[in-house]
Every structure is written in structure tokens, then in C-alpha cells.
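Acyl-ACP desaturase (Rhodococcus ruber BKS 20-38), 317 aa
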Amino acid sequence: MTRELTDLQLLRELEPIAEDNVHRHLATAKDWHPHDYVPWGEGRNFAALGGTDWDPAQSALSDTAQAAMITNLLTEDNLPSYHREIAEHFSLDGAWGTWVGRWTAEENKHSVVMRDYLVVTRGVDPVALENARMAHMTTGFDPGSTSMLESVSYVTFQELATRVSHRNTGKACGDPIADRMLARVAADENLHMMFYRNIVDGALDIAPDQTLAAIMSVLTRFRMPGASMANFRRNAVLIAKGGIYDLRQHLDDVVLPVLRKWRVFERTDFGGRGEQLREDLDVFLADLRTKAERFEEARDRALARQARRGEHAGASA
């Protein structure tokens, strides 16, 4: 019979792993400063200081890049909600507390540098962006009732998903400065993912069935933390159609690599509950793969129609 542990018991048993990974993170993470990634020379005053207010023609970003930058930035803005969620499930003592503080400080850099870049380059409407920030942070992030294992499983997948999204957004901006900036942000997110992934890996050794149940719960209900923001659905469609983050990337670049690292389908220590969950997970992944294929087929058809319309318009011009 496999053990079912309380959150407090899990925290105590996993603390040595947390401590090792805090040390690994501090030894690996590179210091960087947001001001070094912003083209300040492109900035100028807005009307309140005698300059010119924003106009859509000032943005060099495509609609897709704007949607991705806004979505990613508003997601980073909601840091106080994420801090609260992590702090409530972890502890502010010992290695757990050190990690919560360090993670929060590093994540805050991301919203600072992205906002500075967008305001200085006039990539998006700063008034609309600020209004959206106020609304999104007021709503906050509420994942519902979750256990410690569900929380740490979720952030493992979420941090990696965010890494992929930031990296591809940087490329979509068509600006080497934005690409460099978001590559730096993505590198942070990858290190954060590794911390959480290693905690879950340790939990699988301590309580395999219980941990797999948490992983399965997270995967089948997964939503990005920005899902509650205004225009999220519209922006998510643009982001997916633009190849920045879609179901295929979610499956191939996020879910499957993490499951392979945890050796979910190779482990031999699951009990009856875990074995059934593993079978359910296999079915879920097959369904996700089918949905990804359908989306890609629909996207290809839409792009082909768009190309044909462009050809017809060019011929009639």
C-alpha cells in the first residue's frame, strides 16, 4: 500500500531536495539588469509632459507580437497572486522560504523589463496596457482548491510553457533587442521550471501514486495563469495561429519532456491506483495529440485560404 502524506509531511520530507536545488539555482542563475535590455534612446515624452501620445502607427510590432507581448506581460504582472499561492503551499522557513523570496524577486524583473521595453518603443498602447494591468491584478489568480503537490506540478508545466512562449514571442517581434530580452527572461523561466520539476521528481520517489494523481489532475485541467485576463481568448488564438504557443508545442515541448524526465512510463513503483492513473494519462495524451493534429490541419487550411486571397488581390491590383 502506497503512502498518502499530508502537505506538511511532504514539505518536511522534500526539504533536503529543496535545499539542494536552491543551492543549485543560486550557483547557476546569472545576474542581469532590466535597464540593460531596453533601448532608452528610442524613448520620448507623452502628451502629459509636452510630447505626443501613443498612436497605432508608432508600433513596429505585428498584431500577433502585440497580443503575445501583452498576454505575457500581464501574466508576469500578476506576481503577487502567484507569490501568495506558492507561499501558502510551501513555507517561509528554511530552504522553502529562501526559494519563495528568490523566485519572486527574479520574476518581478520580467514585468519590469517587458513594460519598459513596450513603453519606450511604443509597441502597444500604454493606457490600454495599464488599464488591463489594473483589471487583471484586481481579479488576481485563483487556481481553486489545490494541494501542495498539485501546486508544484502546475508550476512545473507552467514555467516551461512560459519559457516557450517568451522565446517564441521574442522571435515574432522582429527586433533583435526584444529577442535578446525575452531570451534572457526565458532562461530564468527554465531555471525556475527545473527547481519545481526536481521537487516533483523527489515527490514521486516518496509518494508515487499520490504525486501522479496530482500530475494527472493538473494536466487534465491545465490553463495558463492569464486565462482570466480580458481578451485572453482572442489573443490566445492569435498566439496559436502565429506559432508562438499552440497545442502541439504544449504537448511536444512542455508536457512530454517533463513526463520523460520524471520517467512516468518507466517507473515500477506505482501501486494499483498509480497504474490506473498511468493508463488514464496515456489515453489523455493520445487525445491531446489528436486535438493538436486537428488544430494544425485547420490552421494550414486557413493559411492557405489567406494566401489565395492575397494572390487574387495582387492579381487584380
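DSSP finds eleven helices and no strands in the chain. Residues 272-316 form the longest helix (45 residues). ok done for today
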